[in-house]
Amino acid sequence: MPPVTRIGCSSPATGYRLRGCLVYGGAMKAGKDEVTVNVRVMLGDAEGYPIAGIGVVWLLKGIQKHRSINGAASDMKLSYPKALRILRNLENGLGQQLVTRNRGGRSGGGAELTPLGLDFIRRFSRMEEQIQRRAEQAFRKQFHRFRLHRSGG
User: Closest Cα partner for 87 from 115, 62, 119?
Assistant: First the structure.
């Protein structure tokens, strides 16, 4: 596993009970003619237990698209029970409901994101982009004297 950096990202304004972020970094990816840094952001609780990463955001976006947890899970090749566990873990970690679930039946059931769910996607995506930009700046600053090339393997 790559090194973990803890940064503060709790936000009293949103009501999220989140106490910090875990940023998995240091992995370099090769572009066509260059090597860049690629970070993976994982939100975690105070003890460092992960509660959300980009996969959760993809799941939430899938729910928004399909208006269904099962449809979103299917797109991601997840079982429905696993998708539910992921959502419960996220909502328990944040102390907020991000998805409204409607039981099936004649009306067909379904699910939709709450306003906080939509806000979570927006904030996570923005934060991830900011961290990636800063990581790229630091990478260029630290490795500007090195000529990095893709490995031949």
Answer: 62
